[in-house]
Amino acid sequence: MNGAEQHMDMGLRAKVALITGSNHGIGAATAKGFASVGAKVFLSYLRQPPQGCGAGEDESAGTTPGPALARALRARSADEVVVGIKSAGGEAESWEADLAEPENIPLLFDRAESAFGQVDVLVNNAAHCEYPSRVMDACQASIDRHFVVNTRAVALMMREYGRRHISRGGRWGRIINVSTDAADAFGDNVWYGASKYAMESISRVAAKELGPHGVTVNVVAPGPVQTGGYTPESVEREAAACPLGRIGYPQDIADVIVLLASERARWISGQLIHVGGGCRM
To answer: Using one digit for the tens of pLDDT, what is the confidence trace for 204-213?
Structure first.
């Protein structure tokens, strides 16, 4: 959040936010955004071993934007994010968990509750992505990996959140799920897009089921965002296709997620919000 927003009352002070996939990129920016408005933040993440390296390529040394840097960032823990939040006076803890394993989901909520108490805000940002993927090159294992993380895990996370919220008689809650603005037909990334599209449908039903319990459920669909993987050439290309003339950055998405969790968005639920500078209208 920018300086002016830090002084606005977002209604999130002392709320507990659980954010998945928060060791880098959009998730990390979202964790920092919640902490900046006084929320207690629990970060979930899973380090992805660097893959696809060229001979002799040192992933940890990657500094130039591109695929190698993106892989290096995904291989980090959330320690740096947690330390940064605490150094700024915020409250944050983390736990590494593979959400493809269903038994980890209740354990994740247990750990968050042990650290800060009941979870008020759930941000499902963790995702699995293998690029490229095409229908005519369909691989069963790859399809399964996408849907297990991007669809099933999100559904189980919402179910766990809902069960705990209802059992304690909760009357205020927020769920924000992160999709992509190309979910309906994602060219060379079909299984990522399709698994996110299914998640969007589930989110709308969750909004209906959890609305009577005071919980809003919304989906944020980012456009092209520089989380390390776009080369300077691809940044220029994406910026030229965007009405606002630039590529997105994690903070652009994080600000909208925090807004949707705030009291200022109390009457918004069951919606898909495109956040991409007008790339998708």
So the answer is: 999 999 999 9
